[in-house]
Amino acid sequence: MLVAPEAKAALEVGATLPTVPELVQRVSGGDTLPTELARATTLWDEASTEGDPIEAAQLREAAYALAAPSLAARMDSATLAGVQGRLDRWIGLADGALRQSEFRDLSTAVSDARDLLAAARAAGARRDTVAAVTATLRASDRLTETTPQAVAARLAGEDELALRGLRRLAGRPAADDARIRLDRIDRLVRGAREALSKGDYELAIRRAYYARQLLSSEGAIAGAPGR
Q1: Of 99, 88, 208, which Cα lies nearest the Cα of 148?
Q2: pTM
Q3: What does R_g of the chain's alpha carbons equal in angstroms?
Q4: Which contacts qualify for 140-144: CB closer than 8 Å, 24 or more apart?
Q5: For tag attachment on the chain, is the N or C end more exposed, with fewer CB atoms within 10 Å?
Q6: Distance of alpha carbon 134 from alpha carbon 89, whole angstroms
Q7: 23-59, pLDDT tens digit by residue?
Q8: What is the rounded distance in angstroms from the CA atom of residue 116 to the CA atom of residue 45?
């Protein structure tokens, strides 16, 4: 996606997928939040920092169960359609690019989100607004895995693991030429982490991608880009 003309727009859309806190803020208008919405926001925030994927998914589901009825009561059809339109746009931008990537599960995430969005619209047509809001939130959650921040973090994490394995294989101390190559990869990986911490996801992806290419040439990552 980084070489495509629409890359900048894609990065911006993916970085602002609708979430429980955003929708709660939109419907509250700055007023004091009802208890269920405040609790839902807290649960969603906890899920965002939870290291266990299963625990995180359970926290998000609990947040949706709390938030959906109140959001449905406060969101008109035009607002919900606008939220779903943002998801449509990201699906359209991400689908083609991710289909060509090595991360097949990301393409699956896009496909799942498309199905959830269809279910949300079907629920809306039945005037089951709570189900429509819940499915929309689940679609957004599924797409979060494909956002620049998530992809950058995944690339950097996998690069770090591969680099550690490569250092072990190189031995201690490594030969000069091996050390130079490893140091170059290390700088890229650390640079990716630094860019990620600053919210520069495009730069983080670039650095992690280049590190991945070098790791692939060293045989540390099979099937990586550039191999």
Answers
A1: 208
A2: 0.75
A3: 20
A4: 140/17, 140/18, 140/19, 140/83, 140/87, 140/113, 141/60, 142/109, 142/112, 142/113, 142/116, 143/14, 143/17, 143/87, 143/90, 143/91, 143/94, 143/109, 143/110, 143/113, 144/17, 144/19
A5: C
A6: 19
A7: 888 888 767 778 899 999 999 989 888 878 889 889 9
A8: 22
